[in-house]
Amino acid sequence: MKNKWLLLSLTILGVTAASCSKDFLQRNPQTEISPDAFFNTPTDLNTYVNGFYDNQLSSPFDDANSDNISSYTGSEMDKLVHNGITPSTIGGWEDWDQLRRVNFMLDNVYKTQGDAAEIAHYVGVARYFRAKFYFAKIAAYSDVPYYGHALSDVDSSMYKARDPRAVVADSVLDDLQYAVDHLKEKDGNGTRVNKYAALVLMSRFCLFEGTFRKYHDELNLQSSANKFLEKAAWAAQQVMDSKKFSVYTGGNGAASYRALFVSTALDNNPEIIQWRDYQAALGIGNNSHTVLGWVWSLSQSLVNTYLMKDGTPFTAIAGYDKIGFLGSFSNRDPRLAETVAYPGFSTTMDNILYVAKPNLGGYDQLKFYPRDPALRKGWNLNYTALPIYRFGEVLLNYAEAKAELGTITQADIDATINKLRSRVQMPDMNMAAANTNIDPVLATAYANVSGASKGVILEVRRERRVELACEGLRANDVNRWKAGNLLKEAPKGMYVPAVGAIDMTGDNVPDIAILPTLADSSSIDNIPWSIKKNMGRYYLNENFYLENGNSGHIMFAADRNGRTFIEPKFYYRPIPLDQTVLNGRLKQIFGW
């Protein structure tokens, strides 16, 4: 089927590279077959939309470009906060061929003959993918040109200016509503777009847009924020009321949570609304093994967010900011040890224990890492199923929308947040207590939150960060909350009490040594050679250092001269310079 689509797409869509010129919004008619030879039956539509899945469906397994990452040199966010992004240096904007694929079908579906409901379903799939495309464009650029049909080389609107964000967002919502109204409730084994996938995307988009408008006064759209927040709650409520999905509790506590991210299939998991299937038999694998100690680790900030096992904040402990690696995992929310490689973890499922690298920060990502070595075969050769949408996010979207609207109740919290906490045997959240005993660390992190529901909003944000860590949502969350202060702050890795030997596995035997220089190993002179010979050695001033010189949290060389976050400019991305030269009506916004 994949090869069949490839041949068809080359025939219908042409092979020219995408750009903002006529290449990406139209194709030379000589490279296309006549629509009269296709789009005649629902089978044709089904064949055509297969290409949307191959090219536009993603299943993220990291939180790059957010404050959940400690060190990721070369990421877009790393470049942004170090003033390395300009219209001349940024990429992007080259994926408009995806939009044309959708619009080409929608322009020609009028001639399709067959079952009306079947045709409407495939139109719903196309409009779902158009909404998804423009959601990403709004998140990156705010105002963008909106194209509702495939352009020809004589179309005067090809070189149009940006359309207002409000217009584009309403079009996204219209597409999603059509998809919700016309998509099948189930199509195959859960890997295809269906009604509930569209509802989740609607709740995600509307929560994004509603909170973005609420907190970003530079848009002057605050008066319309509630329209989107109400729609976010409505969409989530439809999924909840369907009773077709539930929080997965098939394992023992944290094992149920783990199963969402490392299973070989997810079609029978009641929490999964849509997923991607990776199998050797299908010739499709993923790279989820790269999350563990490859080019990034997770941040101390993320680790600090997890509650203690008794439901109290870790940051309420006296001296919490001087608790080392082993102590960070003691008596914590079980989801922490399912997200960060914990002391005693083994990649080989035996007594050979994993040792994290301090030069990346020490808190290596474990979530999504295939636990069974038989499922890790190499680059693009991991065979674990990956979730696209799950019910856990739906519950969090509902709770946050209701909290932002100021209409959340304890019953809402019990039906959402407390369902997720119950899975891992964490204490329930109490609405009155959250609003009375506001966590000062959260209040400082999100200083623009106010009102009677302030404490609840902060705790919902905590729960969202913890439950959805590394699922690709954090960067948009920070942006929509206008929390750029979190990105301006230099990220930290684990706390190191002093240079010298460190036990990273919890067996009372040092595994690594952090040393001042190659010439200075005096801090480990008293360690027996039988132990010292097996220790990994890491030297300061290469790409990391300790905040207090010979002690403190791991910090990174790229941040020695600080980080910059310009408000509101850095919540948006510039259009590449070559595109604004090509189309003089495209203007940069917010200081770009």
Itemize the secondary structure elements and their pairings:
Elements: H1 2-13, H2 22-25, H3 42-56, H4 76-81, H5 96-108, H6 116-141, H7 165-182, H8 195-215, H9 225-242, H10 254-262, E1 272-276, H11 300-305, H12 325-328, H13 336-339, E2 386-390, H14 391-405, H15 410-415, H16 417-423, H17 431-436, H18 440-445, H19 454-467, H20 474-480, H21 485-488, E3 495-496, E4 500-502, E5 512-515, H22 529-532, E6 536-539, E7 544-546, E8 552-556, H23 577-582
Parallel strand pairs: 5-6
Antiparallel strand pairs: 1-2, 3-8, 4-5, 7-8
Largest beta-sheet details: 3 strands, antiparallel
Structural class: mainly alpha
How far apart, in Å, are the first and last alpha carbons?
Answer: 44 Å
Strand order in the sheet with the most strands:
3-8-7
DSSP strand content: 5-15%
Low-confidence stretches: 1-23, 26-31
- Our count of helices gives 23
Query: Number of DSSP strands?
Result: 8
Q: Mean of the pLDDT scores?
A: 93
User: How large is the radius of gyration?
Assistant: 25 Å
Anisotropy-based shape: globular
Give the helix level as a range of percent. 25-40%
Determine the oligomeric state from the structure.
single chain
Structure, described:
With 592 residues, the chain is mainly alpha-helical. The chain has a domain at 391-488. The protein has 23 helices and eight strands. It has helices spanning 2-13, 22-25, 42-56, 76-81, 96-108, 116-141, 165-182, 195-215, 225-242, 254-262, 300-305, 325-328, 336-339, 391-405, 410-415, 417-423, 431-436, 440-445, 454-467, 474-480, 485-488, 529-532, 577-582; strands spanning 272-276, 386-390, 495-496, 500-502, 512-515, 536-539, 544-546, 552-556. Strands 3-8-7 form a three-stranded antiparallel beta sheet, with no helix packed on it. Strands 4-5-6 form a three-stranded mixed beta sheet, with no helix packed on it. A two-stranded antiparallel sheet has the order 1-2. A hairpin with a 5-residue loop joins strand 7 and strand 8. Helix 1 (2-13) crosses helix 3 (42-56), helix 3 runs antiparallel to helix 5 (96-108) and helix 7 runs antiparallel to helix 8. It is globular and about 80 Å long. Mean pLDDT is 93; it is low at 1-23 and 26-31.
